[in-house]
Design goal:
The chain has about 700 residues and is α/β, with parallel strands linked by helices. The chain has four domains: about 210 residues, 3-Layer(bba) Sandwich (FAD/NAD(P)-binding domain), CATH 3.50.50; about 180 residues, FAD/NAD(P)-binding domain, CATH 3.50.50; about 140 residues, no CATH class; about 90 residues, Orthogonal Bundle (Arc Repressor Mutant, subunit A). About 20% of the residues lie in helices and about 25% in strands. It contains 17 helices and 36 strands. The strands form nine sheets. Strands 8, 9, 10, 11, 12, 13 and 24 form a seven-stranded mixed sheet that branches.
Length: about 700
């Protein structure tokens, strides 16, 4: 069952060479160089293993090597499916029980571990790490940039939408994966920067050396003068019955499968979480041809940009605020989700439950910074800096400035000449601003025959429409990018449609009365390809909030200049609705939720995925007075698994606080020194292909 994307309005889905592999001795086909997890998903395989404690089925969750839930057997060896590339004729099997260890004594030759020296070591090649490396490279600093993936760019590679911010400073109007390519090209021109891909950091040690698994083949040591942690963030999990069923996974995993590896990761999707990540994932799903049954947010309003919410609502995705997930249902995989209204204290209101059929539940409830290496460096008194999401969760545009600012600080520390850029700090603060007030934009057109209409009404950092207007008739306060745009009728509009094409929120239309005063032409941005809609087709037009305005014929559809994916969709509309029209319906809005009849079976969410520790077990020991996470680990094994507590510890702290335990009373879990599962032979200097 081939579930690769056959077409995508933004991404190149041209076929790659296929190779055979075997899952439980049955032959399947994968794309060369892709990761095992993506190959399995593309062939309809979502159950990767069975937990030895209770034989519960397990699948993908983070797709980033953090949660350790996707372990399988590859050619007889336990590996993380999301981190290992598929090989021709590879024999893959689900992990059903703990493998036997060979503990027979064998005399081994010990090899010298290679040791490298650099002025700066940067861990993580996402937007912050790349930006920092470029600044250091320009100054001639001997820098080593490492990442555990095989492409530079980090989460930028998962972003197919256009970025907010400003054109001049943060590539506003450019798609995330294109920004990754721009930064990569700039970096690779700098001779003083060395790049190691497929090279995860293993640990930082008291002798001020950093262990790295270079090329996923050889363990080496690096002695840096300075370390920058640009390690990003990891998915937050959520406590509800069925939360570990295959088919429940994080937004990052979804974007990895769909936007990086071109796998149609779901047929019917439901999204939990109304931040920018969840809202954007809904849009990405529609572009991949996936039905989105709905999106819920427990708060009274979404936490992400309103333009993102408006965009998906007018395309047909229902958004339920003041709702939470009650349960994921299914035996081996997800078959449906149950949601319910919540009170102001977020407790479920009985009798409001609704059930939706879906095969995938996307969890987008936030991120936790990955700071382990930074804390280790501080502990061992290595000069340590930190940037991007590892420091503070924010937009990728802010992370780029964060990386540049920290590069400036490292240059100063290393006594290199540097230019002070105080404006970077101000711009970084603006770019990570929370969504502001909702305001109405004055729409004064003074009998203009053609003019832009703004459907953005919330203060966010964004001004690309100002940058591209040839008449300079769109303005935003130059001292405050957060302000809303305004049209200056006295400067006029020529109807060039550049502002429509560049708007990251797809929140700008142009209304043109020049040919017909009664039925003007309204032009919308459209990013679903020319195959979806053709001239003459009848299509549903919606307003900013997704309200139905009527069905009308497409008058024109053309590719925007200098664009490979944004089309300009024009429709003749009655003058009475022309200014209201903000978008077109992409999928039929679903209102087929079923009435839910709760059963009497007691359901217990899993908190620690690695050791299958339930919420009831955690609560029992908290009620006995346990406030030390190390003691809790000794009692129930929570935090003892492969992820080292990175997934369950934040959840346990929230459970503690909900039961009245103050944060200052909680004793933190002692972190293990190694961040990576590694065969002992590598510490003896042997390479991956050596016995």
């Amino acid at each position: 069952m081939n579930q690769y994307l056959q077409r995508h309005p933004v991404l190149d889905v041209s076929s790659k060479k296929t190779i055979p592999f075997f899952w439980e001795e049955k032959q399947y086909w994968a794309k060369e160089e892709e990761l095992i997890s993506s190959a399995l998903f593309a062939n309809g395989i979502k159950i990767f293993s069975y937990h030895p404690k209770d034989q519960a089925p397990l699948g993908l969750f983070c797709a980033n090597g953090q949660c350790r839930q996707c372990k399988i057997l590859a050619n007889g060896k336990v590996v993380l499916a999301c981190m290992v590339k598929i090989q021709p004729h590879m024999q893959l099997n689900p992990l059903k029980e703990l493998p036997e260890l060979d503990i027979s004594a064998k005399e081994q030759e010990i090899h010298q571990i290679p040791d490298f020296s650099y002025e700066v070591l940067i861990i993580g090649a996402g937007p912050a790490g790349l930006s920092a490396a470029i600044e250091l490279g320009k100054a001639g600093v001997r820098t080593l940039l490492i990442d555990d993936k095989h492409h530079l760019g980090g989460k930028l590679l998962l972003q197919t939408h256009k970025f907010f911010g400003s054109v001049e400073d943060s590539f506003a109007g450019t798609r995330g994966f294109e920004i990754a390519h721009i930064l990569t090209e700039e970096l690779l021109k700098l001779s003083s920067v060395t790049v190691w891909m497929d090279s995860p950091a293993v640990g930082i040690f008291s002798d001020k050396k950093v262990g790295i698994f270079k090329d996923n083949n050889q363990y080496v040591l690096v002695s840096p003068q300075v370390i920058l942690s640009a390690t990003g963030a990891r998915e937050m999990s959520l406590s509800f019955p069925g939360n570990t069923l295959p088919g429940v996974y994080g937004a990052g995993a979804f974007q990895t499968l769909v936007n990086r590896d071109l796998v149609k990761a779901a047929q019917e999707l439901f999204i939990v979480g109304g931040g920018n990540v969840g809202l954007i994932a809904g849009y990405h799903a529609l572009q991949a041809g996936i039905e989105v049954r709905g999106l819920i947010e427990a708060a009274p309003k979404v936490g992400g940009y309103k333009v993102h919410q408006d965009k998906i609502k007018r395309m047909g995705i229902p958004v339920y605020t003041g709702h939470t997930v009650v349960e994921a249902k299914g035996k081996e995989q997800v078959s449906s989700i149950v949601i319910a209204h919540v009170n102001p204290d977020f407790s479920i209101i009985p009798g409001t439950e609704k059930e939706f059929q879906c095969d995938t539940i996307l969890i987008a409830v936030g991120l936790n910074p990955v700071q382990e290496f930074h804390l280790q460096a501080i502990e061992f008194e290595i000069p340590a800096f930190i940037a991007g999401d590892a420091c503070e969760i924010a937009e990728a545009s802010s992370a780029m400035f964060s990386g540049k600012i920290e590069a400036q600080n490292m240059l100063k520390f290393l006594n290199y000449p540097f230019s002070s850029h105080e404006s970077w700090h101000k711009k970084a603060e603006i770019l990570k601003s929370r969504p502001g007030e909702i305001k109405s934009i004055p729409q004064d057109y003074q009998d203009q025959k053609v003019f832009p209409v703004f459907h953005c009404d919330q203060e966010i950092p964004c001004n690309p429409c100002v940058s591209v207007c040839p008449r300079q008739s769109i303005v935003i306060n130059p001292d405050n990018m957060l302000e809303l745009p305004t049209f200056l009728p006295e400067k006029g509009c020529i109807g060039c449609l550049k502002c429509v094409a560049i708007c990251p929120g797809l929140a700008l239309t142009v209304v043109d009365y020049r040919k017909d005063a009664q039925n003007p032409t309204v032009t919308f941005p459209f990013e679903f390809g020319k195959e979806e809609i053709r001239c003459g087709d009848e299509i549903t037009v919606t307003n900013k909030d997704g309200k139905y305005l009527g069905k009308y014929q497409v008058a024109n559809l053309k590719l925007a200049p200098k664009s490979e994916a944004t089309y300009l969709l024009s429709i003749k509309l009655p003058a009475s609705i022309a200014l209201q029209a903000a978008g077109v319906l992409i999928q039929q809005t679903f209102y087929d939720e079923n009435h839910f009849f709760p059963d009497n079976e007691e359901k217990n969410p899993i908190i620690c995925r690695c050791e299958r520790v339930s919420l009831a077990e955690i609560r029992f020991w908290l009620d006995q007075g346990v406030t030390d996470l190390n003691q809790l680990k000794a009692l129930v094994r929570a935090g003892m698994g492969g992820c080292g507590g990175s997934t369950c510890q934040p959840m346990i702290k929230k459970i503690m606080q909900a039961r009245g335990i103050k944060p200052e009373s909680i004793t933190e879990n002692t972190q293990r020194p190694l961040a990576l599962d590694l065969d002992l032979k590598h510490f003896a200097g042997k390479k991956e292909d050596e016995e």
